[in-house]
Amino acid sequence: MWENLNLKQIVEYAKDPYPSIRKWLKEKGKKAIGSTIADVPEEVIYAFGFLPVSLIGTDKPLKKAPSRLPDNGCSLARSNLELALSYEGDLFDGFVLPQVCDTTQHLSDIWRISFPGKYVESYLAPRQVDRPSARYWVKEEIERLIASLSSWSGRSVSDKALNDAIAIHNENKKILEEIYEIKKQNPGTMTNKQFFSMVKLAMQVDKGEFNKTLKSIKAGLKPKKGKNYTDVILVGITCDPPEVFDLFDEIKLNIVGDSLVTGSRYLQSIVAQNGNPVEALTERHTRNGFFSPIHDDVYKHFEEVKALYNATNAKAIIYVHIEFCESQEYDLPDLRRMIRQEGIPMHILDTEYQTVSLSHLRTRLQAFFESLKGGSL
Amino acid sequence: MSEKLNAKQLSKKITDEYMEDAFRAHENGKLIGYSTAISPVEIFVAHDIIPIYPENHAVANLTAKKGAQLCSITENLGYTSHLCAYARSDLAYRESGITVTKGIPEPDLFLACNAQCFTLTKWFQVLARKGNLPMFVFDTPEHIMDKKARQEIVKYCVLQLKELISFLEEVTKKRFDYDRLKEVMKYSAQSSILYKKFLDMAQYKPSPISIFDALIGMAIAVYRRGTPECVEYYQTLCDEIQAKVDQGIGVLPKEKEKYRLYWENLPVWFKFSDHAKLLGSYGGVILTSLYVHAWSFDFDLDKDPLVTLAENYVSVFSNSTIEDRVEMAMELFKKYSMNGMIMFMNRSCKAVSFAVPTLKDILVRKTGIPALVFESDMGDQRFYAESQVRTRIEAYFETLDRLQADKPAA
Prior knowledge:
The structure holds two protein chains of two kinds.
Chain A: H1 7-15, H2 18-28, E1 32-36, H3 42-47, E2 51-55, H4 75-88, E3 92-98, H5 102-105, H6 107-114, E4 119-123, H7 132-153, H8 159-185, H9 192-202, H10 207-220, E5 230-236, H11 243-250, E6 253-258, H12 264-267, H13 277-287, H14 298-312, E7 316-322, H15 326-341, E8 346-351, H16 359-373
Parallel strand pairs in A: 1-2, 1-3, 3-4, 5-6, 5-7, 7-8
Helix pairs in contact in A: 1-9, 7-13, 8-9, 8-10, 14-15
Chain B: H1 7-23, E1 31-35, H2 42-46, E2 49-52, H3 54-63, H4 67-76, H5 85-96, E3 109-113, H6 119-131, E4 135-138, H7 147-172, H8 178-200, H9 211-217, H10 219-224, H11 228-247, E5 259-264, H12 272-281, E6 284-288, H13 290-293, H14 305-314, H15 322-335, E7 340-346, H16 350-353, H17 356-367, E8 371-376, H18 386-406
Parallel strand pairs in B: 1-2, 1-3, 3-4, 5-6, 5-7, 7-8
Helix pairs in contact in B: 1-11, 3-5, 4-5, 7-14, 8-11, 15-17
């Protein structure tokens, strides 16, 4: 199903992966477990023989979710709930839902009550990462998730199965990272939309199969420098709807670095293959402290973004704000101030999952880069 | 304390002394620790750190209808209008100095417990960045229903409380006194029992207190728990309310008390007295909410203080599952004989409010009582539609009247 896709197909599948997931599950006789971002160790779900699927919203209209989550709820959370309530719920046998902010605090309760026949488990990642207790707690939660999946499915999981799952996921991230490097240096090789669709699809389909596609794509790439590209850094959690990448491609932006959960934060979450899988998964979480936006340390975030900007010689930063994301909104004024004080041009894109028209985003983006060209570009 | 003071006078005296002590903290070699309202503040008290609650200060300003003015100032700093009104009014106070009180002393350190919400953590992070000050996040994972998981959650929280103590020892260069903590816990346990007794007096018919009395009465439990004066205050308050009960004095006279109501969420602070009057005119008294019960802790003094602290703070209503919140609310419905419910969707408080639609559906189903749902903001008047709320309240009481008229005679 996902073993031999070309770039065009990847974009199409990433836009709506669910028909292919539905078909694949039927063919393989497997079950899918959905997770909202971030932090859930998908390797564990994979090791049990289930398909872990990251839920990253839908652009279809909201019908049922507003009665559960009001309009000041995070756009992604509402969109995910709608996805499951109205469109793709039948696809999933269960969900593992992390709690990373006020919107998600009771989300697993809402999902559990909304889907009484399905497996719904919370993943309670720590909301502090710098103290020894955080490490203790991550390990406890990973072990609890293993016990919970085991109890629900009647299956057990061996260290070997976990290590195999880790290896497949690591390979996936490694190839994606290698393709990303080629694309960064040779922006004419593929569009931003193609690359980020690849990452998104990787988070939703079987990695064992998709790795074959990625290897084949990588082998067949003919690096092209292209002309008149402007290098930029993309900062945020997710960047949706996918048509936002069309806007970047239209004005020839080349994303040379990012901090997206559906981008580099995912690619960098490679797990050490040192024999003890639970320890290694724990280590990954504590190492990637700011994987989940709730414990973003703004100073650390700023330093990382600045380092990325300087290392890549980018011309600007684009910050992707998800409508009604409080975690971003408490940090953004200070982050923006620090970035601007540094003299780094920064553009903030306000996005919403149910956006039907991107014309206002296009106009603002064009105006920003035109003014930038009048200056240093 | 003088025995002659009534509860109101005593509350004022305790508050004045507390704030005076806080403003003189540095002169007296003490530090100011900003704390979330629901947090293991007993550890601060035992370590001679004066806890200050920016939420309480925000409430004073929001009740005095300063919300729109203050929130606008914060929005001009780049913050959005849908963030918590406590946070927005506080950030504006930092910027403008505008307050209806004498203000609050500047912090030396922060303790953010996320059993209430994540917002407070993010808000405190903003303040900590401004002053480059130390902050401790006491992370309380949701008190999920799995018993084994709960034991692990408590263990994780105890580990963190030990880290908190080390953090305070490091900041203050002073050794933590566990015996002093035991003494503080004793006062906290006593005052919590009395505070709960005070809240539970709403069981009487007619009820001698409404939620508005509870909201005023809870202040001392929030900022002075762990002290002997807190115990004295609630003893005095309970005695006063008991005297009302003995005389049959209710918020409304017995014959006029038709509807005994449950309130979900924090109050609309700037509509505090208006709501009491409006509801009273229909024979309605709001008796209680899970929010006011959040400070009626049940500390077990036979346990390790850190364990009983962890158990209590991790299991508050705002950190409990919706199913557990239903159980907690159902207990109140039964105990207080309530026959109506007002479910407030508070734009400011996402952590509490996003559970409300689901909670409402289950409570309506379980109790058979219709619910009034309205959306507004606890502190920002720009999100309050007066005529709409009034119309909904009127319609709700008409529904309750109709249902009562349709009831077969007992």
